[in-house]
Amino acid sequence: MVLTIVIAVTAGFATYFLSKLRYFNALRASSLLSLIAYALFLLMSTHAELYSVVFFGGTFVGMSTPARFGYYTLTSAAVLFALLFHYLVPHLHGYGGALGVSAFLSVCLCQLAIVLGGPRSRKSG
């Protein structure tokens, strides 16, 4: 569980920062980082499929946030994604459904919390 959270937060922040570079956008950042992460997980781990799917889902969170969220909210959304994904995988068939639903719900819940007056971090430049 802790490793899932660390992977999701790392993926979210990596996508968040890479998408701000001149020749990158959110889609290119997510694609490149996911390919690199899959290669690294394949070399380092026996659970490469699971970890790469978690990383890819974390990039969804990072893709959704550069215009709306700051660091605190990005971290909250990534942690929430990891928790939802961990819970939903056994209940949905395959990783795809759990991946999309978890990413969508985590970003929506954080945005809803902001709209309802929850804590909000400053948007980073």
Automatic annotation (TrEMBL):
Keyword Membrane attributed: yes
Residue ranges crossing the lipid bilayer per the database entry: 35-57, 69-89, 95-116
Keywords from the named record: Membrane, Transmembrane, Transmembrane helix
UniProt key word Membrane: yes
Descriptive protein name: Inner membrane protein
Lineage, highest ranks first: Bacteria, Pseudomonadati, Pseudomonadota, Gammaproteobacteria, Alteromonadales
